[in-house]
Amino acid sequence: MPIEWKNVRRILVVRLRSIGDTVLSTPTLIALKRFLPETKIDILLEDWVAPVLDGFEAIDEVIKVSGSDTKSRLKIARELRSRKYDLAINLHGGTTATFFTRASGAKARVGYKTYQYSFLYTHLLSSSNDFWKAEHTHSAEQQLALAGFLGVPVEDRPKSRLVVTEKARRSIDEKLRREFNAETQSDAQSSQNISPRDSAKSPRLGVENFALLHPTAAFATKQWATENFARLAEYLYERNLFTVAVAAKNERAVLEKLKSQSKVPIVIFDDLPLPEITALASRAKIFVGNDSGIAHIAAAVNCPSVVIFGSSNRNHWRPWTEAPNEIVYEEFPCQPCAGYTCEVFGEPKCILSVTNESVAQAVEGILKT
Q1: For position 205, what pLDDT does the model report?
Q2: What's the rounded Cα separation, in Å, for the pair 363 and 358?
Q3: 68 with 204, same domain?
Q4: Last-in-domain residue among 123, 149, 175
Q5: Of 176, 261, 351, 369, which residue is the least packed, with the fewest Cβ within 10 Å?
Q6: What's phi and psi for 184, nearest 5 deg?
């Protein structure tokens, strides 16, 4: 049954889970808003990730899921129902997402045939591969396919996009200046650790001349060694780029290890809210990091990037951007895998086999671009 677009006044998009998933939903949101500029489009996100869409112009409202208990979910369900949606699109097939999609009361509910409880939907697409007539599809294409299946123009495959808010820009500029000033003093005191050749090439510290590194990941099978990132910081320093590294608060130890193992100064942040990470990435000359949500943030603000892959699916998770980018990996027949542990070798050879030289070569190529 085709969608009667003239009767669609309000759309709910359901996209639970991670930073990367949310960033990669933006092409679908862009496609929907340009097709239906007068229609109100809301998105349901988990509260911790919701700020990543601050200021994003293709949505009218972010509705936040703030708990996993039955009481909080029922509260959200009642709120959704009261908004009287005409159409709900579930970009994530989990049980909770399906519950909220059905609870919205939308007349048309869209998902994939592979979703659990698929009988709760009115419109089901077989697969994104069928829609795009391709063997492999990216996460962004997987989500775009659901909109395209309904008749929304998506053939141009919009790229991911985030907005840098003025508040975040001002805040990160202030923090960068403060940290750079501190590192300048520290660098002067520890200059004996840098060879005369390196010292002659030392970058002038400033907020306009830095690379952004993200040395952590969700699993060990996706996390390139910290000492390798330390060598990379030194390599970038020789090329007149200072290093700023980010991670979450519970990953502080990795940042401290990176800082202690490098012979050059590094600014580290473990407490930046997502809008400030977005602003930071928009200022960087280049991003280098593991496959992660932060990599997708960098791509969405057109920061040139090099992303290091281990166990995860490169076809599905590579940067979705028009900015210059490279992915670095060593190919193994067991890739991709779930990534929780390495069940073939006992240790994640996929990420352990990625060399400093291959990453440096990719970085050099992006910097020349």
Answers
A1: 53
A2: 9
A3: no
A4: 149
A5: 369
A6: -60, -45
The DSSP line for 224-289 is: --HHHHHHHHHHHHHTT-EEEEE--GGGHHHHHHHHHH-SS-EEEES---HHHHHHHHHH-SEEEE
Query: Is 67 domain-assigned?
Result: yes
Which secondary-structure segment (H or E) carries 266?
strand 266-269
105 in the same domain as 225:
no
Q: How far is CA 256 from the centre of its chain?
A: 23
Structure tokens at 7: 């009767």
d(CA 25, CA 84): 22
Domain of 143, CATH number, reads: 3.40.50.2000
Helix (H, G, I), strand (E, B) or coil at 255: helix
Q: How many domains does the chain have?
A: 2
pLDDT at 197: 44
Q: 361 with 224, same domain?
A: yes
Mark whether 145 and 170 lie in a shared domain. no
Q: Judge whether 159 lies within some domain.
A: no
- How far is Cα 144 from Cα 131, in angstroms, rounded to an integer? 10
Residue 154 lies in a domain: no
Q: What is the rounded distance in angstroms from the CA atom of residue 280 to the CA atom of residue 143?
A: 27
Q: Are 107 and 147 in contact (CB under 8 A)?
A: no
pTM of the model: 0.94
Query: How many other C-beta atoms are found inside a 10 Å radius of the C-beta of residue 104?
Result: 27
DSSP structure string for 13-80: EE--S-HHHHHTTHHHHHHHHHHSTTSEEEEEEETTTGGGGTT-TT-SEEEEE---SHHHHHHHHHHH
How far apart (Å, rounded) are the C-alpha atoms in residues 209 and 203?
8
The Cα 364–Cα 366 span in angstroms is 5
Residue 160 lies in a domain: no
Q: Do 120 and 181 sit in the same domain of this protein?
A: no
Domain boundary residue, one of 92, 119, 149: 149
Q: What is the pLDDT of residues 291-311, one digit of tens each?
A: 999 999 999 999 999 999 999
Range of the domain at 185: 166-368
pLDDT in tens, 140-192: 999 999 999 999 999 999 999 999 999 999 999 999 999 988 877 666 555 54
pLDDT at 200: 43
